[in-house]
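Record 1 of the preview.
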Amino acid sequence: MKSVYKIGNTLALAGLVFLLFIFLFDNKLVIPAWVQVFGRMHPLVLHFPIVLLLLSMVCYWLPLERSTAIGWPFIRLIAALTALITAIMGMLLSIEQADKGDVLTWHKWSGISMAIIAWAMYQFHDLLNKDFRYGKIAAGFGCIILVLTGHWGADLTHGDNYLFAPITHTPAKTIDINKAELYADIIQPIFTEKCANCHLNHNQKGGLSLNDSLSIFKGGKNGKALVPGDVLKSLVIERIHLPLSDKKHMPLSDKPQLTNEEIQLLELWIKSGAAFNKKLLSLPEKDSLRILAINYIQPLINKQTNEVYDFSAASSSKIKDLNNNYRIVKPLGANSPALSVSFFGKLIYSTETLKELNSVKEQILHLNLSKMPVTDEQVNWIAGLPNLRKLNLNYSDITDKSMAQISGMKNLETLSLAGTKITKQGIETVLLNKHLKEVFVWDSKMSATEMALLQQKNPQLIIEQGFQGADTTVVALNAPIIKTPSAFFTGSKQIILTHVIKGVEIRYTINGKTADSNSVVYTGPFTISNTCSIKVRANKKGWDSSSTVSAVYTKAGFPIVNVEYLTPPDSKYAAGASKLLNDLDLADPRDFSTNWVGFQKNDAIIVFDLGETKPVSEVKVNSLYFLRSFVFPPVFLTVWGSNDNKNWKELKTIVPEQPQKLILRREGDLLSLKFNTTQVRYLKLQGKPVKKIPSWHPGKGQPGWFFLNEVIVY
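->
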């Protein structure tokens, strides 16, 4: 047993020296690949020393005769060794990944401290045991360091404040649309929700921080997170679009992924220049980024907050008595003292029904008198509501005479005057109220020119004028509907087109060209018998033509009874490879982590068995084209034929056109190899991936990918 402890002492001391060495010189060390594997075992083994460390510390609270039992020294030795090994693994992992951040720094210090404490408690146990107080202090301090190390480790792997998140609640954010900023209110929340685990606050995996503009532009060890104006060179977009199975895909596959809307927002923001201090409403009204962003934050705009009011709530019995079939009185929110009042029915509405609300005048914040016969006398009462914020007088009998009283309401923020007799003079009077934020004046007696001048004079206000030019504006038609979904088919396929508006003329093509006025007019269902790409467009007098919709129909060829790979596909993209090339399923090009077979390090060489000799004249290969993820057309495609799977004859070679610049295109291409009809049973396909990506691509010099999904034989 003494020899075991002697070896253990030597290993522990050597491990301590090595740990301190890599801690001091971590910025200068390069970790070989085989050592990286050792470092990546850190999350796997860290739980083992935790249990042993706790056990070794517990002994200091046990009676002396129990704490000196023969098994304890061995537990302390194993605890020290495993703590040192785990700390060394963690240091190697952080060096490999080039991670940075305050949390990582604290985790390193505490982890190394824990390893040193474990070693010291083993090495100097007898000294600590002479006075039990020293042992208890050392064990208590070790427990604190152990808990802190685990806490910071959890923050690194699961996100900031992981431990206390369930009991700390952040109030829901609301957004003032007039003050909303592109980055602070739209882009940063996306980063916070989807990227915080790895790149926000104190965690900087790969050296990348998304905390602020300087950090974002600086980027990490793999390059710049974003390049303003260039989506294709922005690493954050490239990583988002990688397949889930790729280790470089971000966010990590087990974390919440960005929605299509969030990805589009990021791309449009970068394309627009990635401004960090730009107001949302400073963008043109028809700008795609503005439209999408407003829709994205809509749930947070004008959301009722838990505002604190300086008046008490009306009793529930009083509110109940004020409600009837023609008047609704209700709180603005749960447990809110503020009230909303709405009137219905002109015959019942009167000055008396308004004055019945005197007991709750202080609590009324919203008043809806739309389509009511409001008089100047009643406006005197309305103007006396001390806390009124929102007043709706749409299509009421209000006139210019009442505007002076309304202009004196100190808390009024929103006023609706649509469809009233209010003139330019009346609006100018009410706009003297500097507390107003919104005024709705559509369908009024004012001209478009007058309203434009008012808006120019009051830029701080939102003056909603409604839709102008309804009689002259030409609106685009809805897109037509292709009711027959894209698919493989055998024999023939019936195609059905339709439109939601009657009397629309639908024109279509079946050769992949855009439909125009010379294309065939759709009169009813038609039949196709060969592979084709259908494009459809709708027209109607007085309307702009619709957008074009398309669908692809692929005719199934000869059945393929067996697929044999002579060269293996990449292990990341080989799941179900034996069936993917002949299952008559053209996979989604937007998700090539599944249903696609990928080759990078070697040519794709695959043999297809038709089961018996067939007259073959064409082979089609559905390949992927997505440059941002290094997926290129093959350098060449060659097909051979054979009847004995031994003697091969070359039937056709094609050289697909290679791209000359980085584009956003992401789709499947049916590459066709046509040749003279040949009687064959076996076909051998060879596709060569791009060996080195061109210099114009961010991945220049690296090997490209060749992806294929379906092979069709005719």
